[in-house]
């Protein structure tokens, strides 16, 4: 066991500093231990835009944070460790869906009780909670998930275990509350947590995390897709006592043709992992706790000099575009705005991506968070350099 002596310039503290990197072991992919060209003429109407409920932070409300002319977009250019800024916004969609998504933008995460403050690095937390069947679940995650991670006894020395525990605990707490209130909402989640030079990406459901590398020439899809038609998820669902179904139509020959996305039963959901959804999980309501689960996929990596930015987005964005299209739209917008300050560049990049979403007539909410890293700053000459 390492003994810490905070604020004491002794040899022991120096030894702790040298070995502090061991506090954040490399985390590999994790599955459940049980289950297996920007144009000013294409601006989105402000009436169609919304920003989900935001958990604000010092960085997100600091003097360099600003709200652009785009209604309620959130932009910050305050550096926090390896993060040099971010922009976040949502588009309601043509079907005028209710505002079901929530986001967290938290910089300068407090030091957990398990670690001395003098070795706690600059850390931050960004997350999208993609709600469905109501907004209470996504709001609950916004208010509680990050706190449950930070308060877990295994964080940060066993970060993977702590995050896994926090996802399970948060789901159990919400389900207990939801059962008492008859609340049927649920939510997916994708989280990017920065601790020093490490980034830990965790997701449950089908929201995505992409990393743009080497000036956009390479894209890393960090998150997992938890949908019932994914082979591994399909097997897990069936083994857990559930089933996967599709809609279908009958053609002129009398044959049944599959139509639409796969759904998981019980729950009748398009995702196979999610928070909440008591009707899918509680037996007395017809649910099965082994079918729709909350167990997250976790991936940890070190932020290196080739990483440009990280994008978190709801699945509705990728119903319209490929990963490559999304990254290319962002880079094209950033290049056009390269002579502007960073806040304007980030604002325009998010705006232009939402413009493309609007042009493609998306029906559902689309929520995105663009997180800037050092390589992007160094490769966009202008007021930033």
TrEMBL record:
<dbReference type="InterPro" id="IPR015655">
    <property type="entry name" value="PP2C"/>
</dbReference>
<dbReference type="GO" id="GO:0016020">
    <property type="term" value="C:membrane"/>
</dbReference>
<dbReference type="InterPro" id="IPR036457">
    <property type="entry name" value="PPM-type-like_dom_sf"/>
</dbReference>
<feature type="coiled-coil region">
    <location>
        <begin position="336"/>
        <end position="363"/>
    </location>
</feature>
<feature type="domain" description="PPM-type phosphatase">
    <location>
        <begin position="85"/>
        <end position="373"/>
    </location>
</feature>
<keyword id="KW-0175">Coiled coil</keyword>
<dbReference type="GO" id="GO:0004722">
    <property type="term" value="F:protein serine/threonine phosphatase activity"/>
</dbReference>
<keyword id="KW-0472">Membrane</keyword>
<dbReference type="Pfam" id="PF00481">
    <property type="entry name" value="PP2C"/>
</dbReference>
<protein>
    <recommendedName>
        <fullName>PPM-type phosphatase domain-containing protein</fullName>
    </recommendedName>
</protein>
<dbReference type="InterPro" id="IPR001932">
    <property type="entry name" value="PPM-type_phosphatase-like_dom"/>
</dbReference>
<feature type="region of interest" description="Disordered">
    <location>
        <begin position="1"/>
        <end position="20"/>
    </location>
</feature>
């Amino acid at each position: 066991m390492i003994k810490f002596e905070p604020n004491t310039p002794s040899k022991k503290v120096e030894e702790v500093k040298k070995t502090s990197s061991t506090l954040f072991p490399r985390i590999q992919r994790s599955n459940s231990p049980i289950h297996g060209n920007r144009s000013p003429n294409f601006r989105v109407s402000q009436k169609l835009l919304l920003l989900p409920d935001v958990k604000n932070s010092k960085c997100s409300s600091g003097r360099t944070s600003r709200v652009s002319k785009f209604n309620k977009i959130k932009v910050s250019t305050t550096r926090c460790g390896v993060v040099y800024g971010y922009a976040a916004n949502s588009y309601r969609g043509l079907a005028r869906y209710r505002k079901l998504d929530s986001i967290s933008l938290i910089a300068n995460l407090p030091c957990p009780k398990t670690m001395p403050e003098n070795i706690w690095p600059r850390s931050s937390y960004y997350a999208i909670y993609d709600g469905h069947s109501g907004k209470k679940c996504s709001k609950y995650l916004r208010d509680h998930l990050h706190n449950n991670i930070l308060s877990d006894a295994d964080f940060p020395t066993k970060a993977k275990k702590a995050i896994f525990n926090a996802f399970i605990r948060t789901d159990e707490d919400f389900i207990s509350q939801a059962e008492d209130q008859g609340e049927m909402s649920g939510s997916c989640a994708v989280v990017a947590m920065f601790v020093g030079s490490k980034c830990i990406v965790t997701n449950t459901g089908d929201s995505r995390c992409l990393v743009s590398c080497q000036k956009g020439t390479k894209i890393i899809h960090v998150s997992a897709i938890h949908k019932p038609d994914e082979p591994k998820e399909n097997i897990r669902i069936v083994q857990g006592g559930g089933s996967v179904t599709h809609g279908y139509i009958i053609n002129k020959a009398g044959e049944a043709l599959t139509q639409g996305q796969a759904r998981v039963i019980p729950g009748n959901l398009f995702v196979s992992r999610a928070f909440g959804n008591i009707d899918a999980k509680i037996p007395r309501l017809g649910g099965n706790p082994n079918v729709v689960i909350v167990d997250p996929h976790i991936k940890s990596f070190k932020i290196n000099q080739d990483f440009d930015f990280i994008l978190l987005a709801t699945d509705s964005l990728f119903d319209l575009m490929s990963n490559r299209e999304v990254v290319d739209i962002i880079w094209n917008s950033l290049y056009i705005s390269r002579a502007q300050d960073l806040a304007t560049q980030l604002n325009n990049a998010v705006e232009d991506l939402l413009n493309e979403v609007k042009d493609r007539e998306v029906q559902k909410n689309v929520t995105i968070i663009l997180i800037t890293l050092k390589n992007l700053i160094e490769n966009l000459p202008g007021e930033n350099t």
